[in-house]
UniProtKB/TrEMBL annotation:
Entries under InterPro entries matching the protein: Znf_SWIM (IPR007527)
Name of the protein in question: SWIM-type domain-containing protein
SWIM-type domain segment(s): 571-605
Swiss-Prot/TrEMBL keywords: Metal-binding, Zinc, Zinc-finger
Organism this protein belongs to: Xanthoceras sorbifolium
Amino acid sequence: MARWDEILSLPVQNPPTLEFSSGEIVWSKVEGWRDKLDRVALIPFARVGDFVRGESANKDCPTRFHVEARRRRSSSASYKPKVDGILEYILYWCSFGPDDHRKGGIVRPSRNTYVPKKKNAGRPNTKRGCTCHFIVKRLIAEPSVALIIYNNDKHVDKNGSPCHGPQDKKAAGTRAMFAPYISEDLRLRVLSLLHVGVSVETIMQRHNESVERQGGPCNRDDLLTHRYVRRQERSIRRSTYELDPDDAISINMWVESHQSHVFFYEDFSDNDPFTLGIQTEWQLQQMIQFGNRSIVASDSRFGTNKLKYPLYSLIVFNSDNKAIPVAWVITPRFSSADAHRWMRALYNRIHTKDPTWNLAGFIVDDPAADVLTIRDVFQCSVLVSFWRVRHAWHKNLVKKCTESEMRAEMLSRLGQAVDDICKGHGTVELFEDCMEDFIDASEFMDYFKAVWYPRIGTWTTALKTLPLASQETSAAMEFYHNQLKRRLLNEKNPNVYQRADWLVDKLGTKVHSYFWLDEYSEKDDFARYWKDEWVSGLTSWRKALKIPDANVVIECKSAKVTDQLDGDKTYIVRNPGSQFGTCNCSWADMGYLCEHMLKVIKVCREKGYITSSISLLQYSQTLMDMLHCSTHDSLIRDHAVSLAMLPMLQPEKLILSCHSGTSGQVVVGLVLKWVCSSSHNNILYIEISDKLRERRVFGQNKELLNEKEKKRKL
Ligand SMILES: [Zn+2]
Ligand SMILES: [Zn+2]
């Protein structure tokens, strides 16, 4: 009994890294069988996979661990409540063992059906009698915890000599120097390249070239074989999305075989609709890396008119501020009660991996989004993005109004109405006036009346209550939306759009591959990457930063932007300085905010022709509110000043010297000038509004805590 008391009192270790190895946890010695001491540790059961991966990536002796034996107690079986009862027992063994196929090695009798293959000098057998292994036990007493017993942690054979890796002299020059399989990164790279149509030959050619350049193989990935790549290609070619003629059964089968890609699944029931949440391991990693203390945005209702069920994407932004989809949710209905369940599941999944993960802000693109649920689950600020509506208006004006000046004027009026509402003094009447004034442009106004007028009320409320996401974020979301459209909705036979199994399959294979490759630095080696369907490259915001000021000439009602490559080509931007402008380039013709409009906005702002953007105004307002709080609250004032100083500590741009006597207001003013030219609005806004919220809820929390404390004592 003493042994179990000791084990159950050990701390559960949960390192905040994606993978971790035995070197990163503390091991305890506990009395085991026959008075031997066992080396044990406790980790969350959900993280056993992370431990196995981390342990496989051992720097001194890379390998892989496989499940050598597994026993599970069936859930229905009754059991005596014993302290040492186990639900599950898994034995992991180094893949270079336990058998030994080397000359004179021992193979267990049960495995002696093995017939040695014709050997190739460079590739001797993988089984080399390695004794390294560990045991994972899931206890009945603590099912969420895994007990690891790790007594044989050296990669040696039964004689105690190294039997693979750099320490093993006999392994030199063979595969046994390296881990027995290619890395997860290379596996995904090969799969992604195949999915987007790069040939086996091209993949192998590029691979061999790079191994040659570095002077021969020096790690496991350098030993990628033609055979492996060909096998993958064949299995992709032979697979089908239609696992069953019945779409619902087919989806069920997909979920069964892709458990690790599914974070939430519920079939239709009397009360709830079908909901499927997809997130691959790579997407989870991206969400942890780029979402932590940063922003997640949602792109909702994608393909509402085309697909059987619309698609909801959650995206994060990488260092170039380009969107990466980190989860996809497919469901026929997006109502608040349903969202709570999958959001909680997603949050829990991330927190299992990284308990310190925190979101700074969540951007919604739908005024009906359940803000309370988001705040409840993610504990962060919620912002709203207007890109979808601006894009729809712009796109439809291009289609339905051929007169370019009229088009620009209408867009300007609509934009003015939105700005006034965001600033807090506009109402729905502004749109009613628009509809009256532009009665001549009947085709667009009919569309506006039918589609947007009924929703304008909810949008007005959302714009008045939630801070607006920045233009840079809008540009990134537009870019993502366009990428998804080109990568997903490019089928020759549109009938497939009416099957959900097709959608699930295409997201998990082709679409996932495109986004994976976007992040892969050597993608440019593949000519196919430059094909139109990839739409790679920078967002229009980032492109705008590259246009020199000299290329922009601002006139009264329009601006001219000279093309960077072709000096004879110019673009005409109308409504200069407004995001509700127009431009005659192809990107703007599709209704998107183009780099020319964004560059003109930047120039206008620098020259003082226009005031700050709405998101910046909202940011400064919050900062001022903070500074104007009552004098006795010096903590919050200090915080406002230090937050205002924060962007100045960042490199480049305006360097200001601030003397200790400078008042908060002056600092804020100067910093706002700086922020005008930068793209940090969202984060800054969130940091500051978070602090305000914290202060506001502080009092309530204290009461709650007191109450909890009272209950506990009872
Ligand atoms: Zn080993
Ligand atoms: Zn343009």
